[in-house]
Amino acid sequence: MDMQELVAPFSRLLQDICSPAAVREVERGESQAAMWQAFEDSGFLDALVDEEAGGAGLSLAEAAPLIALLGYNAVPLPVGDTMIARALFARKGDQMPQGPIVLAGGATFTPFARVARHVLAGSPEDPILVGSHESCPPAPSLRPLAAVLRALLISGAADRVMELTTAFANERSQFGKPIGKQQAVQQQLAILAEQAVAARIAAGIGARGGLYPQAAIAAIAKHGASCAAVRISAIAHAVHGAIGISEEFDLQLLTRRLHEWRLADGSESYWAGVLGAARTSAGPMASADFIRFAQGAAAEKQVGAVS
In 30-100, which residue ranges form alpha helices assigned H by DSSP? Predict the structure, then answer.
């Protein structure tokens, strides 16, 4: 399947229903029903569900561009969480639940919990659904998968922040020329672009682990994306001269999410510990070989899970 056949219409859908004004309305507590119904009607919520169960049968790596677009558009609903939850329930043979679902993998807070109808607990192999107002302890076995999801969202938001910041630097003039012509600003924009690419690569590595990622793969993805999120947000607001935090700037819609997703399901510090433990236990080998080994092991696990 040509992924552009899915990415292009999904991008148009998001532009139609998730404009910055619509995002602000949901954040103010206004009804999310119309936006969610549009996602239900589109069929994209079943993108990861196997074809035998009525879905598109995409792998997480194939669906990664779709999830990144959710971050790019600062979608205020748990669409990526619900895609994953539906896929897990379909593989278990259970009836797929309706309404927004969030993954409860974190030990601190769960993104989008305010607008969710259900919370997914348990494990990827044995998912359990509870109501959003019921008591639900964190599910550590879901954390690697949730961390990869947040990394993909960060990668999409990072691309949009880069675009907004570059455009602002080329439009904002000081001392008779755009600030983007100043060498110091150009250097910061170059670092921002570098970090956005780093987040995309890290998230892509995590997505290759599929719906049952190993901890090392999730650690590579979430640690890399979370580290990048910090620098991307700081540079973007510095180039904007700190006015990007104002309510009228779309930049704050994205950088708030960068920080939220960075902390959710384990910050860069948490995943650095996981990654360090996995690296040292792997024995003497080059770090590049360690990453290749981890990806290979993840691919084997993914094949085993599918078969």
Answer: 33-42, 60-72, 79-92
- For residue 55, the one-letter residue type is G
pLDDT at 69 over 60: yes
The token pair that represents 259 in the structure block: 């920080």
Phi, psi of 103 (to 5 degrees): -90, 130
The SS3 of residue 120 is strand
| 144 vs 222: CA distance, rounded Å | 9
How far is the C-alpha of 181 from the C-alpha of 160, rounded, in Å?
A: 21
Strand partners, 119: 102, 130
Residue with tokens 């278990």: 92
Reported in sequence order, the residue ranges of 89-226 that DSSP labels E, i.e. its strands, are 101-103, 118-122, 127-131, 173-174, 177-178
Band the pLDDT of 306: cuts 50, 70, 90.
very low
Whole-angstrom CA distances from 51 to 143, 199, 256 are 26, 30, 36
Q: Which residues pair with 238 in a beta bridge?
A: none
234 Cβ contact list (under 8 Å, min separation 6): none
Instruction: Give the pLDDT of residue 298.
Output: 63
The interaxial angle of helices 183-207 and 60-72, nearest 10 deg, is 140
DSSP one-letter code for 144: H
User: Is 20:253 a contact under the CB 8 Å cutoff?
Assistant: yes
Residue type, 227: C
Buried b (16+ CB within 10 A) or exposed e, 27-63: eeeeebeebbeebeebebbbbbbeeeeebbbbebbbb
Task: Judge contact between 90 and 175, C-beta under 8 A.
Answer: no
Largest CA distance in the chain: 65
Nearest to 73 by CA among 130, 16, 133: 16
8 A C-beta contact, residue 84 and residue 145: yes
**What one-letter code names the amino acid at 24?**
R
Q: Are 100 and 113 in contact (CB under 8 A)?
A: no
